[in-house]
Every structure is written in structure tokens, then in C-alpha cells.
Design brief:
Blueprint: H1 17-33, E1 43-44, E2 60-65, E3 71-73, E4 76-78, H2 83-94, E5 101-106, H3 112-125, E6 129-132
Parallel strand pairs: 1-6, 2-5, 5-6
Antiparallel strand pairs: 2-3, 3-4
Helix pairs in contact: 2-3
């Protein structure tokens, strides 16, 4: 027996407005609670090609990185993976200097990790001004 003969069945309807409200609140929550990481913890000053302007000579700390990974900080040779000695040498070289600039002389075949280790050690010591030394190739 069909008791609902004359009635038409209504299709179910989904109300999207409460769902949109909920998604908007979640979006606002995520935007407020997200921490934005800074990729520029180390401020790297790239050399400019303008020869007209000259800057006053700043205190410089030269770090040489060989292809084998060995390093030399201001004339003192260090082992390839000795991060604590590298930090100590950078700290000693920066003692008494105001805003020293760390110049990284890396061999063309030096590993990327050894250069990044120098940058991390400089950041750990508090040296924020870095530059890379390059050589010009003859045309």
C-alpha cells in the first residue's frame, strides 16, 4: 500500500552558507596562527659593479675554503669539518672590530656544504655581513 500517492517527494537541499562561514573562520584562524619564516637570517651583501662610488674600508675577515673542505680564517688553518674551531676563529678574528664583513673565498670545486658551514658559523658568532669573492674571467 502506498500511502504517499499524492505527495511529491522534495529533493534534499544542501545549504552552503554555514559551510562557507566555517571555512572563512578556519582560514582566518590559520592566517593568524601561521608563523612566517624568514629566509634572510644572514644578510648577504653582494658586491656591486660600480667603480665610481667607493665605500669606506670596513673591517674584513677573510675565510678561504679549499676544494677538499679545509678552511683558513685570517691565516689560521682549520680541519674540514671542525665547526667549533671555525666559530672560535671567527669570534677571535671579529674581536674588537665594529661590524666586520666576512669575505668567503671558496674554491670553484668546493662543496656547497662547506660554504654553508662557514655561513652558519658566522651567523652563530653574530656576524651578519657576508660577501663572496669572485674573479673576473678574461673575455
Amino acid at each position: 500500500m502506498n500511502f504517499r500517492r499524492g505527495r511529491h517527494r522534495e529533493e534534499p537541499e544542501i545549504n552552503f552558507i554555514p559551510m562557507i562561514d566555517l571555512l572563512l573562520v578556519i582560514l582566518i584562524f590559520l592566517m593568524v596562527t601561521t608563523t612566517y619564516s624568514k629566509f634572510a637570517e644572514l644578510k648577504i651583501n653582494l658586491p656591486s659593479a660600480q667603480a665610481e662610488t667607493s665605500q669606506p674600508a670596513a673591517a674584513e675577515i677573510t675565510v678561504a675554503v679549499a676544494a677538499s673542505g679545509e678552511m683558513e680564517v685570517a691565516g689560521h688553518k682549520l680541519a674540514a669539518a671542525d665547526k667549533s674551531a671555525l666559530q672560535a676563529q671567527l669570534r677571535d678574528a671579529a674581536a674588537g672590530k665594529k661590524d666586520p664583513v666576512v669575505i668567503i673565498n671558496a674554491d670553484a670545486k668546493a662543496t656547497h656544504q662547506s660554504v654553508v658551514s662557514v655561513m652558519e658559523a658566522a651567523r652563530a658568532v653574530g656576524l651578519t655581513q657576508l660577501t663572496f669573492a669572485t674573479q673576473n674571467t678574461a673575455p
